[in-house]
Amino acid sequence: MKSFTSIDIEALKIDPFEAIGQDWMLITAKKGDQVNTMTASWGGMGVLWNRRAAYIFVKEARFTKTFIDASERFSLCFFRKQYQDKLEYLGSVSGRDENKIKNVGFTLCEDQGVPFFLEADTVLVCKKLSQHPLLPEGFIDSSILPTWYMDGCGYHSLYVGEIEKVLLESM
């Protein structure tokens, strides 16, 4: 069975523009005994408050948001390109309507109660530090609102998570 090795975050070699913006990631969280995930292409990594941090954006209408809100931790999973069609599917259907994790055939794992997927090649285990709703009055560039927020699904919330652990696929 495939396994993961925990590495020091300083050894993480990832291009966030490619890994998040082009290849996408799964944001996964647990609420009670249920797990939900969503595909994301907005976010980043860096240093905030002297901590290694990841930041993600989740729209109010997303089912996964309720899981992130209910949990202290979440995972960010990155995959090889062979899984792109599965990530596309996971981003196009809601866990409210079907068991989308089962439907793509992914295997759930946990690291100290934080769910992630065996099929991932890199996993960031994050502890929530803050959550901030993006509000219309906060936008300086007026072209953003009509481009991204006229669908009636609300605005995004920005979540900042401290990266507590990096798991890499063991070869």
Structure in words:
This protein is 20% helix and 43% strand. By secondary structure, it is α+β, with helices and mostly antiparallel strands. It has one domain (4-169): Roll (Pnp Oxidase, Chain A), CATH 2.30.110. The strands form two sheets. Strands 1, 2, 3, 4, 5, 6, 9 and 10 form an eight-stranded antiparallel β-sheet that branches. It has a two-stranded antiparallel ribbon with strand order 7-8. The chain starts with a strand and ends with a strand.
Comma- or semicolon-separated keywords:
171 residues; two-stranded antiparallel ribbon; eight-stranded antiparallel sheet; alpha+beta; Pnp Oxidase, Chain A
Secondary structure topology:
Layout: E1 4-7, H1 16-22, E2 25-31, E3 34-40, E4 43-48, E5 51-59, H2 63-70, E6 73-78, H3 84-92, H4 100-104, E7 108-111, E8 114-117, E9 122-133, H5 144-148, E10 156-169
Antiparallel strand pairs: 1-10, 2-3, 2-6, 4-5, 5-10, 6-9, 7-8, 9-10
What's this, in brief?
By secondary structure, the chain is an alpha+beta fold.
The tally of domains stands at 1
The name of the CATH superfamily reads Electron Transport, Fmn-binding Protein, Chain A
The profile of the biggest β sheet is:
8 strands, antiparallel
Indicate the low-confidence ranges by residue numbers: none
DSSP strand (E) fraction?
35-45%
Shape designation: globular
Strand tally: 10
Class from helix and strand fractions:
alpha+beta
Just name the CATH architecture: Roll
How far from one another are the termini? 11 Å
* Helix percentage: 10-25%
CATH fold field value: Pnp Oxidase, Chain A
Total number of helical segments?
5
Specify Rg, calculated over alpha carbons: 16 Å
Mean pLDDT: 95
Pattern of helices and strands: EHEEEEHEHHEEEHE
Q: What is the CATH C level class, in words?
A: Mainly Beta
